[in-house]
Design brief:
Blueprint: E1 9-12, E2 18-20, E3 55-57, H1 63-79, E4 85-89, H2 93-105, E5 111-114, E6 121-122, H3 130-133, H4 137-140, E7 141-143, H5 145-152, E8 155-157, E9 162-166, E10 171-174, E11 177-186, E12 191-192, H6 209-219, E13 225-229, H7 233-244, E14 248-253, H8 267-274, E15 280-284, E16 288-294, E17 297-302, E18 307-310, E19 312-315, E20 319-320, H9 324-329, E21 337-339, E22 351-353, E23 358-360, H10 369-382, E24 397-399, E25 406-408
Parallel strand pairs: 4-5, 4-11, 5-8, 11-22, 13-14, 13-19, 14-15, 21-23
Antiparallel strand pairs: 1-2, 1-3, 6-7, 9-10, 10-11, 12-20, 16-17, 17-18, 24-25
Helix pairs in contact: 2-10
């Protein structure tokens, strides 16, 4: 007689994604009820692209225990509120992962987290699949910033901008006054860049939750015509998701195929084949010359004099690291904050950086998987634990075009 074991959950050690055997991963070809042991070897984590071998059994945390831990961590924080501790700039995945790694090693160290937004915890990769999955913006939030701060015993300075680093006095100047630090960790990410021909006032740039929320407010409820400039990873995923949501997409790029970074793997030809039955028009080999508002519509003109009109314009034209804080602190710069490869230290004592804002040996790696390892590396140094040197690894990228999911290298 066979015994049907209950379905289990497993968590990705790289990014924190929880795989539920009961739910499966339909977008990745795994129907509900697929056991972890039965997952094909070529399956990849939907968020960060690692294999099933990076998943370990997961048990949901006990809420009562979490509250007790929060109270325990908060007590030393209140006693040492004026002491200079660790200041983290940025409340994206890198910032919160850094706070988690520090708190796991030291329940008493004062941690302040400065965020230009509310600091809500969410998985950014879901922004490019939410429409097709029928997820509202509120459903994307895993935990509010205030809740995460209470759980970790962290002082969250939400809706606060970091203005400059006063390295000589070990202070971070913010729009809410100066903040002393013993260790400063820059985790403020990168911003969506705009070519000169794309005016900021007429473009959506979907690089964080609040911008995505405004875009959804503008397009939810009816079908729209959208022009997306940039057919890289983000542009292609957004085009696929919005088309599945009933919108009509024109996707423009200077290259002749989408996903041109992966030409050797013929990724562009594969997604074009998958898009045959979707309302996506790809136009390659064009460069935007001008954008103007004509009545309620947006008119995009290319240098070869082709004209496209739409209700909304989305720019997916790459990321750039803001340099203001790095320059104010005198940090080495190489297309991002240059950090030591094994320690993630900057050239200034007590200042570290991780995530999208850094480069290692001149190379950026703006993916989910390295962040957990980067946070552990920095935390081990600050807390005086056994060092955990950071190692750059070859990346596996999961392209979340649900019409044809791709795993690329």
């Amino acid at each position: 007689m066979s015994i049907d074991l209950p379905f289990a959950q497993y968590i990705c050690e790289a990014c924190g994604y929880v795989y539920d055997e009961a739910l499966g991963d339909p977008d990745g070809g795994l129907p509900p009820g697929t056991r972890l042991a039965d997952i094909p070897e070529d399956w990849a984590c939907p968020l960060c692209g690692v294999s099933k071998h990076d998943f370990v059994p997961y048990v949901a945390p006990d809420l009562g225990q979490l509250r007790a831990q929060a109270r325990s961590a908060a007590q030393p924080r209140r006693r040492a509120a004026s002491a200079a501790g660790v200041v983290i700039v940025g409340a994206g995945r890198a910032g919160w992962q850094m706070a988690e790694a520090l708190r796991a090693r030291d329940a008493k160290i004062p941690i302040s987290l400065v965020s230009a937004c509310a600091g809500d915890v969410y998985d950014k990769p879901l922004l490019s699949v939410a429409v097709a999955r029928g997820l509202s913006v509120t459903q994307l939030v895993k935990e509010s910033g205030a809740q995460a701060a209470r759980r970790l015993g962290v002082t969250l300075m939400a809706h606060t901008h970091a203005v400059r680093v006063c390295e000589a006095t070990h202070q971070l100047r913010t729009t809410r006054g100066p903040l002393p630090y013993r260790h400063l960790i820059l985790a403020h990410g990168a911003q969506a860049g705009l070519p000169p021909a794309l005016p900021e006032s007429l473009c959506w740039r979907v690089n964080h939750l609040s911008a995505y929320q405004k875009l959804r407010q503008a397009i939810d409820g009816s079908s729209h015509e959208l022009v997306i400039v940039g057919a890289g990873l983000i542009g292609s995923e957004l085009a696929n998701d919005l088309a599945l949501g009933g919108h009509r997409i024109t996707l423009l790029d200077t290259q002749t195929t989408p996903l041109s970074r992966w030409q050797a793997e013929q990724a562009g030809q594969k997604v074009l084949q998958a898009w045959r039955d979707l309302p996506i028009q790809f136009v390659g080999g064009v460069e935007v010359a001008s954008v103007e508002k004509v009545g309620a519509r947006i008119r995009v003109t290319t240098r070869c004099h082709r004209v496209f009109e739409a209700d909304q314009l989305i720019a997916a034209t790459g990321l750039r690291t803001p340099s203001r804080l790095a320059q104010s602190a005198g940090l080495n710069w190489c297309d991002g904050i240059a950090v030591e490869a094994r320690t993630l230290r900057t050239n200034r004592p007590g200042i570290y950086a991780l995530g999208d804002c850094i480069t290692v040996d001149g190379q950026a790696s703006r993916y989910i998987e390295p962040i957990v390892r980067q946070a552990r590396t920095i935390a081990s140094q600050i807390c005086g634990d056994e060092p955990e040197p950071y190692q750059v690894r070859p990346m596996v990228v999961r392209v979340k075009t649900t019409s044809m999911p791709l795993t690329l290298h």
